[in-house]
Amino acid sequence: ALSCLSLSTFAQTETGKTPISQPLVSHIYTADPSAHVFNGKIYIYPSHDIDAKDVKEDDDGGHFAMRDYHILSMDKIGGPVKDNGVALDIKDIPWAGRQLWAPDAAYKNGTYYLYFPVKDKQDVFHLGVATSKSPVGPFKAEPQPMKGTYSIDPCVFQDTDGKSYLYFGGIWGGQLQRWDNNQYDAKGALKKPEEVAYLPRVARLAADMKELAEPVKAVQLLDENGKPFLEKDNDKRFFEAAWLHKYKGKYYFSYSTGDTHNLCYAMGDSPYGPFTYKGVLLKPVLGWTNHHSIIEKDGKWYLFYHDIQLSGKTHLRNVKVTEMTYNPDGTIKTIDAYK
Ligand code: FUB
Q1: Catalytic residue status for 214
Q2: Using alpha carbons only, how large is the chain's radius of gyration in Å?
Q3: For the chain, N or C: smaller number of CB within 10 Å?
Q4: Catalytic residue among 49, 104, 153, 240
Q5: Tens digit of pLDDT for each residue in 222-257?
Q6: For 83-129, what is each residue's pLDDT tens digit?
Q7: What is the rounded CA–CA span in Å between residue 140 and residue 133?
Q8: Alpha-carbon span 239 to 259, nearest angstrom
């Protein structure tokens, strides 16, 4: 879901300032880090960015032409980071056409689940799932996309009552605009400035974690006054990169505003929302995209994110982590990734 980034965007961000964190790995390009703690250890499920020289940059993010996943692991924040090699290759996903975008993972009853978006052979994004007995794979993909899923950026949230929810969606190159009311329309248009913005999607997962247990719903995301965002509120409305976490009994839905490059968050009392907008979590980073995850480890909270510190190119990103802190009222202190 990305449009041409451009050097102008690069210049408007924090060029010249000092990054607060360094890339977690530098031997490969990584992005969209979905972090989890499994058995006391941190696992990061990122996109694996590559320089596909045969693919031209376009407004639908065609230059994000990723073909596999590598899972990173670390015992603690600040410790050595291990690249566990190829965990899933696009050639082993029977229905895949191109573009393995931002994944997520979950664990249940001895099995690890890797959720991923990829375009099918007709160039339509759907979500797939793959399983492994190890958190770092190798993962085996199911032969078909997950029924009823579409668009990009899956995020699985497992609530304390054992229920699991799949969040997803992304406009522009992420194709969410083609799926109003869960029906495909290849001509689905972006909203006009005065129209109500597209909303992210959610569905509870079935017990086997491979299927949806219910029809896909829109996640209710409201502005500070309890009103839906309009498309012209593009510094706050949802674009892509959904993440859900829970803190002190409240549900936090965070996401990217895409073309305005913010990571924002909203709070609610249920995994379905409604979520009320609370502010910016991470200001724009170097590069067009902004995409994150949030975990708790040893009593501290961490934001995983990416920028393009190593390459200076929008499609060659590097994942990073920084501590995240809450205010006494449960709101989150805004992070600026550069000093
Ligand atoms: O990495 C490809 C796409 O870029 C992701 O799916 C979006 O969230 C954006 O980060």
Answers
A1: no
A2: 18
A3: C
A4: 240
A5: 999 999 999 999 999 999 999 999 999 999 999 999
A6: 999 999 999 999 999 999 999 999 999 999 999 999 999 999 999 99
A7: 10
A8: 8
